[in-house]
Write a structure and sequence with these properties.
268 residues, alpha+beta, 38% helix, globular, AraC_XylS_family_regulators, DUF6597, DNA-binding, DNA-binding transcription factor activity
């Protein structure tokens, strides 16, 4: 899951011991004022989230892989600390399949093995305590060691990473020693999504990375940079995955004003 806004948001690299499992550690705090829904964009990842404050009970949340964007409400003053896992990793550590969690954010407690659940709950009681954060990291590292055979092996991990590249899915499967059907099964088992859908999500994320790096980039150049066939293709895919045209998505992200994201050749 990737937030488009609605809260002060900070993202940092994971501790070195978790680098193979976790892509990023993030924190957010919802602004004061009326609760307002915001858009969570698909990124191919699953998150373990601790939430507290804002006049509500503390929560442990498992955010499953999102096939498309979804709208989420944040209670004003609510704080969150999240671990964004690399595709295929968190599903190997929980007592549930990624497919069962597609597009959902259930209570994490029943789905976490006890050592991880206990460490997460302890941190939820003291979210700013450095020792509790280290204990959660240690619990994750220990769980990954005991469940190593369930984690993506080197070939699958490399193939998952390669899906985030401008190559055909079939070519990616072959290059990493998979037949197409076996590849499809392995990716679905690891993430809940098909390889093709995951590649579409990764391409959307490349779009976001490109426009954040250069907010003045034209939509036509953006389509080429993110490896869409053309600008109309980018618009169709952006709308299918986020519910917004590319221009409106960029305006919602605050990257540029809507009039600055005007369509070219009627594509947007």
């Amino acid at each position: 899951m990737t937030d488009t806004g609605g809260a002060a948001y900070v993202e940092t690299p994971p501790p070195p011991a978790l680098g193979g499992l976790v892509r990023a550690v993030w924190s957010s705090r919802a602004a004061a004022g009326p609760a307002a829904p915001f858009r969570v964009l698909p990124d191919g990842c699953m998150d373990l989230i601790l939430a507290w404050g804002g006049g509500a009970d503390p929560e442990l949340i498992l955010a499953g892989t999102d096939p498309v964007a979804r709208m989420v409400d944040h209670r004003p003053g609510r704080q969150r600390l999240g671990l964004r896992f690399r595709p295929g990793c968190l599903g190997a550590l929980i007592d549930c399949t990624p497919r069962d969690l597609l597009g959902q954010s259930p209570d994490a407690a029943p789905l976490l093995p006890q050592p991880l659940r206990d460490a997460a709950r302890h941190l939820l009681d003291r979210p700013d305590d450095a020792r509790s954060r280290r204990a959660l990291a240690a619990a994750l590292a220990g769980l990954a060691e005991t469940r190593r055979r369930h984690l993506p092996g080197p070939a699958l991990a490399a193939a998952l990473a390669a899906l985030d590249a401008p190559a055909l899915v079939g070519q990616t499967a072959t290059a990493h020693g998979f037949g197409q059907r076996r590849f499809d099964r392995a990716i679905r088992r690891a993430t809940g999504l098909s390889p093709r859908h995951l590649a579409r999500i990764f391409r959307l994320q490349r779009l976001l990375t490109a426009v954040m790096a250069d907010p003045t980039i034209s939509l036509a150049e953006l389509a080429v940079s993110a490896n869409f066939a053309d600008q109309p293709h980018m618009t169709r895919e952006t709308r299918a995955l986020t519910g917004l045209s590319t221009g409106r998505l960029l305006a919602e992200l605050g990257v540029r004003k809507l009039q600055d994201a005007a369509p070219v050749l009627g594509a947007d």
